[in-house]
Request: fold
Amino acid sequence: MQRSACTVRSAASRHSLVLCSQKDRLLSAQASAQMVDDMIQFVRTACQGSTRQALDVLQTGMAHQEGFGHDRLQLAMAEVHAADSNWAAVVEHAWPVAQQQSSFGSSPLTAQIQMHASLTCVRALLTQGKDEQATQLAQQAVKQSDSLLSGEAPTPNKQQAHLEAVTCLAGVLHATGDSEGTAAQCQTALTLVRDDDASGGVLPKLAVAAALKQAAALRLAQGQLSEAAGLFGQACAAADECQEPGSSTGLRPPVWQQQVGADVMLGAAQTAAAQHAWDKAEELLSKALNLAEQLHGGDSQTSQVGVVLGLLGHVYARSKRITLAEGLHRSGHRHERQWC
Reply:
C-alpha cells in the first residue's frame, strides 16, 4: 500500500515536471518570436537607407535563431537586398526557405512563410530575366499549395497560400507571353476568391486584391475593357481596405501592401484611359502616384513613378490640359535618362 502511494506520487511528480518543461519551452518560444519581431521592426524603421547596418543586425539575430525564426530573418535579409535592387542576393537568401519541401504546410504559419519566400524568389528571377526558373518555381509553389487543400479541412493560411501561388503563376505566365496558361490560372484564382466570398470571406484582402488585379490585367490585355473595369473596381475596393489604419500584412513586409495597391490603381487607371474616362483615370493615377512614392520612400525619381507620370501626362493631353501634360512629359524624359 505504501509502495503504491509512492508510485502515485512519483508519477504525479513526473507529470508536473513535464508540464513545467512544456511551459518553459512555450515561454522560450514566445520570447524568441518576440525578439525576431522586434529585430525586423527595428530594421524596417531605424535602418532605412543603411543596408550594412540592417544586414549586421539580422545576421546577429540569425546566429541565435533556428527554424521558423531563422527563416523569417533570412527573408528579412532578402527584403533589405530587394530595396537595393540586388536581385541575386534576394534569391540567395529566399531560395533556401522556399525549397524546404519536406516541411511545407507542417504548421499554420509554415505554408505562409514558404509561399512568401517563393513569391520573393519569383519576382527576383523575373527581374533578372530568368523566366524559365521563375516559371518552374511558380509551378512548384502551385503544386505544393494544391496538396495542402486535399485531405484535411483547409485552414485560412493554407487557402491563402494556394491563392497566392496561383496568382503568382498567372503573373509569371502573363509576363512570359503564355496567354492560355495565364487565362487558366486567372480562372482558378477568381473561383477561389468567389468561393471564399460566398463562404464569409476569410482570405486576406491583400491576397484578394492581387488575384483580382491579375485577372483584370489579362482582360485589359485582351481588350475586354468592360470586364477589366469591373475586376479592377473590385481589386481597388480590396486594396483600399488594406490601406486602412490597423490593417496587417501578416508576415509580408509593409512595402508588399503598397506595391499591390500601386499596381491595382495603375491598372485601373489604364483601363479608364482606354475607355476615355479621363476624370476617373486622373483620380486613380493620383492614388497610384502617392502609393508609388511611398513605396520608394518619397523618391520621385524611380521607374515606377515615371510610368505613372507618363500615363498622367497622356491623360492631361487627351483632356486638353496641354501645359500640365507638357510638364509631366518633361519629367518623364528626365526619368528615362536616369534609367539608361
